[in-house]
Structure formats: structure tokens, C-alpha cells
Amino acid sequence: MSSKIPRTHIIGAGLAGLAAATRLSGLGHAVTLYEAVGHAGGRVRSFHDPVLDRLIDNGNHLVLSGNTSLTAYLDETGASQGLCRADAVFPFVNVRTGVRWSLRPNAGPLPWWVLAPSRRPPGTSASAFLSALKFWRADADVVVSDVLSDDHPLFETFWAPLALAVLNTPLDRAAAKPLWPVLVETFLRGAASCRPLFAPDGLSAGFIDPALTHLRRCGAVIKFRQRLRAIESNEQRVVALNFSDCSVSLGPTDSVLLAIPHNGAQSILPGIGAPSGGQAIVNAHFRLPSAPLFDAPFIGLVGAAAHWVFVRGDVASVTISAADHWVDQSITAIADAIWPDVARAIRLDGAPRPIFRIIKERRATFSQTPRNMQLRPGPTTDFKNLYLAGDWTNTGLPATIEGAVRSGHHAAIKVDQSQQPRRPD
Ligand SMILES: Cc1cc2nc3c(=O)[nH]c(=O)nc-3n(C[C@H](O)[C@H](O)[C@H](O)COP(=O)(O)OP(=O)(O)OC[C@H]3O[C@@H](n4cnc5c(N)ncnc54)[C@H](O)[C@@H]3O)c2cc1C
Question: Which of 38, 183, 195, 384 could form an SS bridge with 65, CB 3.0 to 4.6 Å?
């Protein structure tokens, strides 16, 4: 590799790495992207499932139009055109009572929708939404259930579904503070910032493949099946990258951007402070006899073990967040346990359980406790040419797609700033 043109070596082709690579390529940097496995996307991927004979995603991913880092990435990679923007309507059903409702944020920045009974959960008052301010004022060591007890009128119908989806951690352990920026960037900005984005042909086609095409067009080098095992350093600079079956020497002006999950980063950089532990998400995919007569792309479940159902064609895909207590159960036990509520939610009450596929992501995110939140490092390290990205780094956001993309952008800015004096005109 030439030592004259500074090159950024990006490790990990999840959304953090892809966002960083895209941003740096756009700024005129030379980029090489290394990915441990044979495909990009990391925790965001699709595949053909032979049991269902359908293309499925590893798990449902709910992202909103107010995720501005993500939408910038989608625009930069040309992926925006391939996505569908649904209306800002969030349907729910209480499977115990059968009561259905929809949250309907209004257009414009003032959230007057909470004043309209038809736009908020039944039996709640507008004043109950003032509880949002408690998240604004929450200290860093406070957990969600300290902020709101489970007898709060909005706990079951709004805060618990939102907090579990965003923090993927039991609410008596989940840090409250990171919910506030999520509210500010989406629900408090009005309907235009709350439109769910869907990839009709799957997550890989919607969020990942366009970035690979764009990067190749920009001249980036993309290498699969390259697992970084160790780095070599000299005087606070990384000088070589040791992969499973080869070593890459770095030029004196090259940079490294490590965009791999927290446990992998810690084994390569044992000295860095980082969150510990992981939280599972279990996804169940049911292939229905036919597309259901259900008129929404997704629905939230209250009073059920499952939390969300997304419907695409004749497949109903179900999310169970903070699912550590489910992962050791058999796949049949999981499918049998959740199917009756899923069927009820999508108006197939009493239908026999169809064929299914269960995907257990044991480390879907790090455990988003107050302590772990405080251990998140920023993009710079003790090495002058080594930068960090990933949903576990300190973005101020929870470990989400938006957080991963934003971390990639933050790290890319640092790399770019470090190269400014050297870059040719
Ligand atoms: C089932 C599930 C549901 C989710 N639902 C949502 C949701 O609804 N909304 C939302 O916003 N977020 C959701 N998330 C979280 C979201 O997927 C992640 O926050 C995000 O994808 C993390 O991206 P990342 O780039 O930081 O990490 P990753 O996607 O993990 O990417 C890291 C990449 O690095 C590679 N790698 C690892 N080690 C090495 C190595 N040593 N050398 C080279 N490469 C390596 C990996 O193979 C991987 O491709 C969900 C996650 C899961 C698992």
C-alpha cells in the first residue's frame, strides 16, 4: 500500500463501519474496509430461510425519519429511494383486553397530539405525558423504573414499549437518561420525524447493499473474511494490523477506525474502558397460510411476552426485547408461547401455529445500564491514529442503528481532522 496517500483502514462492515467509510470516501479519503465474515451489515442483515422458504431479516429493526444520521447515510449511499416511509401511526393492542389504539403524532413541532384522546392511549390524560420531562431531568445513575413506576397511566401503553425497544434492557436496570435524546429527535419533533422507514426487500437490500455498491464506485477496497486479531504499535501509533491469515503494514500517515462490537474491541485493546455484558433479542418469524387481513406494517403488543409484530407479505416477524430469560428455552417452546398473542394481534385469533423460525441474538446490544453508559468511550484513543466507532461508543444515544451510524460519522470527522494538514489539494 502506498505510504503517500493516507489510507483509513476500517475494521467491521456493520452500519458504524459503513457510515464511516461512506463519509470518508465522500471527503476524498482512501478507504479499505475489512469484515470478519462473508457479508456486510453485522447485526442488520437478511437471508433466505430454507424452513420458511422466504427472505427474512435477522430481526425487526424500527427506525424513524427523525434518525437524521441514518437518513444522511441513506442519502449519501443512494439507499433512500429503495425505502418506504410509512405514516407516523403506531398501532397497539392490549392482548389481555383486546383494546386497540394508535399513537398519532401530529404534523409540526408542537406535540399537541397528546391533547387529542384519539391520538393517545385510551384512559390516559394529556397531563400524563408531562412525565416525559422526568427523562430530561434524569441523572446518569437513574434507571427507567425509578423515573416511572409501573402504575403510571402511561407506563404499560407508552413508556415500557418505547424504553424496551430503545434500550433492550429490563427497565429496573435500564438507564433513563438516553431516552431523552430519542424523544427530542423523534416524538417531540412531530409526525415528519416519526415516520417509520421500511426496507420492502429486507434489511440488507435496504440499508447495506447500496453502501457497498457506492463505496466500490468511490474506489474503496472491501475485504471479506478478514478478522482482525491484534494490532502492532510503536510510539502511540498503530503500525500493523494482524488478521487471521495476513498482516497489513500501515503507512506513516494511515489511520485505523475500529468499528466492531465492544467485546471484540476489548480483546484487541485490553486497556480501553468499555461496557460489559450483552442483552439478547429473540425474533420469531411465522410463515402464515396467506397474507393476513391486517392493515398496518407493524403493531405493538401490550400484556404479552412478545413486544412487536411486523408483517411483510405472508411472514409475521416478532420481536422479544430484553430476552435473556428466553434464550435458553427451546425454539418450539418459544413459538408455542407467543403465537396465541401474535395471532390475536394480527387478527388471526385461534389459528393454529404455523411453521416458524426463531433467531436468538444473544448479544443484540450491550446491557444499557447506568454504569455501562458511563463506560462508553469516545471516538479517540491513546493511539494517535486509532479511532473507535460502534453503537457501544459514546454517542449520547442508546445502542441503535442511529447511534451506530452517528458513531461512524463522529469517528470519520476525527480521522478527517487528523489528516487535514496532510491532504493534497
Ligand atoms: C435482533 C436485533 C434487533 C434490533 N432492533 C433494532 C431496532 O429496532 N432499531 C434500532 O435502531 N436498532 C436495533 N438493533 C440494534 C442495531 O442492530 C445495532 O445497534 C447496530 O446494527 C450496530 O451496528 P454496529 O456497526 O455498531 O455493529 P455491528 O452491526 O455488530 O457490526 C460490527 C461488524 O464488525 C464485524 N467484526 C467483528 N469483529 C471483527 C474483527 N475482529 N475483524 C473484522 N470484523 C469484525 C462483525 O462481523 C460486524 O459485521 C437491533 C439489533 C438486533 C440484533
Answer: 195
